[in-house]
Amino acid sequence: MTKIGIIGSGDLGQLIAYHAVHSCSMQVAGFFDDYKESGQIVNGIPVIGKLADVRRAHEKGIFDVCMLGVGYKHMDERERIFEELHAFLPFGKVIHPSCIIDNSVLIGEGAFLLPGCVLDKGVKLGKNVLLNTACVIAHDTEVADHSFLSPAVKIAGFTKVGRKCVIGISTTIIDNIRVADEVRTGGGTVVIKNIEQAGLYVGNPARFVK
Questions:
Q1: Which pTM was predicted?
Q2: Which one of 40, 127, 189, 206 has the fewest CB atoms closer than 10 angstroms to its CB?
Q3: Which of 74, 86, 96, 139 is catalytic?
């Protein structure tokens, strides 16, 4: 049974822990959290150290792989912590068994896929990518490192979503689109042409807000 250490014991960390145990037959060794005391129990799982303790804990065999539970409100921190730790620690993958994933799909380390996602032929997910419930990604589309897709996002074929993007709930992106790094979309946004500048986009069709 794979043992995982989860960095961050907030909402996302707890969600990762739940699905790791109940959906993926993993064991959670504990949380690492700079804002909680060691020994504190969060939903039945102990906090076993701070961020600075992660490497030592892995060397001691306390966990096999780690996952990052830093949410979409802290995208720079998601990237920074992952890249720092990835240099010397293995990251796992937590993929709900209800997901439909073609054999040709490539999924990077640290990925978290929630129930009901569908990934077609040739899809590529980068490192530390999160797909929330019922995302659909069509053939030959790529989602780059550290991006975060909200529930019911639909992305058509031959599309590329950049790094550290936050794609809002029920966003639709048509085929052959390029989305720049660090783009955010509001709920229900419809993207019908390339987005070349970082920022927030909303509406149908998508328009730049800030």
A1: 0.96
A2: 40
A3: 139
